[in-house]
Structure formats: C-alpha cells, structure tokens
Amino acid sequence: MSEADLIDADGEPPAILLTGVGKRYDIVSCFAALARTVAADPSPLAPALYAAHVRLAPPPIADPAYVPFLEELCERERVGAILPLTDLDIELLALAREQRGLPSLVPSSEVARATYDKYEAHLLLTRLGLPSPPTVLPAADLSALHYPVMVKPRRGSGARSIHLARTRAEAEFFVSYIEEPVMVQRAMQGPELSIDCLGDMDGRCLNAIPRTMLESRGGESIKGCVIDDRELIELGARVMDSLRVRGPATIQVFRDPELGLAITDVNTRFGGAFPGPAYATDPGMSYPELIVQMAAGEPIEPHVGRFTPGHPFTRYYWQLELDEQMRPTGREIVPGDPPERR
Fold first, then answer.
1. What pLDDT, in 10s, does the model give residues 7-61?
2. Which domain holds residue 306?
C-alpha cells in the first residue's frame, strides 16, 4: 500500500495503530483526537483501549501469528504508522518493517535489540562516542570498581530489581539474588533528567525536549518540568541522529558532578512523562500531530530546541466504568473539570 493509497476520498489521514497500550490513556486519546486510532492489547481491561476508535486483542507477541495479525489489521484499517507503547515488541516490529514492509515507526532491528539490553546499549553508546556510565558484567573483577554501583537486570524495565551496592560483597550478593542476567554499573550522582525526542522516517531528529524527573514511581516519571538546557538538547539530538531512531524515544541521563552527563537508558518509544513534551511544543507541533503527518507521507523539517519550557506537570490515576458488554458507560465518579482555585 502506497502513501497515496492511505488518503481516502474525504482527505482523512491514515489510521495510527498503537500496540501494548496498557494504561497509557493519555497517549491513545491524543492520537484519537487527530486520526482514526486502533489500540491493541491482550487484556480487555487495559484502560487505554477505550480511548481508541478500534480496540482489539492481538495474539501473544511470541506467537508466530502476531505479525500476520498486524499486517491484516494494517490493510483493513488503512494504518499508516504503528507505534509500540512497551519495550516488548519493538525489535519484532523493526524486523517486520525490514522484512515485510510493516509501517512500524521504530529504529532498525539492530538498534532495537541493543537498546532493549542495557549492557548492549552501553557498548553501542560507547562505540558511537556517546557518554555512558562505567558498566561491566558480573564476571569482571568487582573489587576494581568505583563504589557504590547499581546491580540491574540487562532487560529490566519499570525500575524492577535494581539494587544499590556499596561494597563488593553487596554487589556479589545482588548478582546472585537477581534471577536473570544482570550488569553492574557505576551509581551516578547528581540530578536524573530525561530528553523526550522524535525522529522522522529517515531517522533524523526532529526535536529534543529535556525535562526534570522530580518524582518517579516504578521507573515512570509522575512529576517533572520541561527545561531549556542546551547541553541536554544537543545530547538528545546526537543520540537520535547516531542511532537513526524513527519515531519517539526517551533518553534518561544523570548529570554527575564528576563524570558529567551520562546516559543510563535509551527507550525507543514514548516515555512515562508524555505530558511534558505534549504541553511544551508549539501549536500544531506536538509529537502525535507530527506522527500523524508523517504517516500521511508529509515531510517534517527538523526544529530541534523549539519548545516552551517552564511548565511543570503532575500525573494521576483515573478510571472507567464498563457495562456488561465491556463498553464505557460514560459515568464519572466526579463529573467536570478541576474546580477553580479559591
């Protein structure tokens, strides 16, 4: 299907398919306000399904039927771009793009594989001359490390099973305690920061928006503020251009008083603090708006550093009531917007 085929007679943009939507109602609802949006998640109680125009339960990611299911869905719904909202299928979507032409807005399969494995990501960043904290595997001489260190799963997410070790004995204990492959990384000091980025279909960085991480839960930022930090903006653009990332990415860094900036994670998907760049971008230039334009074949010029800093955001939980047919009832516990401040 060509890009021209995606625009129907009424000039409607192609649909956007989001996989593994989970609780990301904010992301799905933003896309649904712009274009026909299809949400896929194996759980019928995934809240974000109910923000989409079409909701489906795909086969498990490990099932050979997963990619054919997405292919059929793309054809039927005229999907112009697929975005994963978890790490689990990014590499699979990248391979499907390379081998079968699936319109996945993800990096190459090589980059997807490396960034999903934190140790491989460290090696990749180091090869490209990008700053990464000193990192070793457990077989290294742990007595030679600079302590404290972090012992963390190589394929962990959501801050799962990450432990601070102040001595070699503690590091060896956590290495044996965590029941999956781990790595040992120097514990960074100073503030933790993130850079929310977007790449175009050719892997050029379109924008890089840094923010503070004032509070996180389960590895996901729930409070923060967009900041105008030229060093972070330039680093985000360097990472995106070096890795040729298509679509969104969140780059997590520390500004260590001794080492300077060092990258601890490159997540090639939307991050938890999606509201930050959504509020900060200029009108008509939010990442969902640009993605809908790219899905329709429209070229986007890079505008790195173009945003408005200074507005903090705070995230919270809400809920949906469903009827017997699993349809939203529309009933709210407390209707209306937040009250005016008195």
1. 554 678 899 999 999 999 999 999 999 999 999 999 999 999 999 999 999 999 9
2. 189-314
| pLDDT at residue 9 in the model | 46
Helix (H) or strand (E) holding 42: none
Positive or negative, the CA dihedral 52, 57, 59, 62 is positive
Domains: count for the chain: 3
**Which of 65, 103, 101, 64 lies closest to 84 in space, CA to CA?**
103
Chain centroid offset of residue 116 CA: 11
Are 21 and 85 in contact, with CB atoms under 8 Å apart? yes
**Is residue 155 located within the same domain as residue 203?**
no
Q: If you average pLDDT over residues 226-245, what whole number do you get?
A: 98
* Tally of residues, the chain: 342
- Provide the token pair at 149: 């260190």
8 A C-beta contact, residue 278 and residue 313: no
Verify that 243 and 196 share a domain, yes or no: yes
Please report the pLDDT score of residue 4 as a whole number. 45
Residue 154, Cβ neighbours under 10 Å: how many? Answer: 16
Task: Choose the final residue of a domain: 56, 90, 106.
Answer: 106
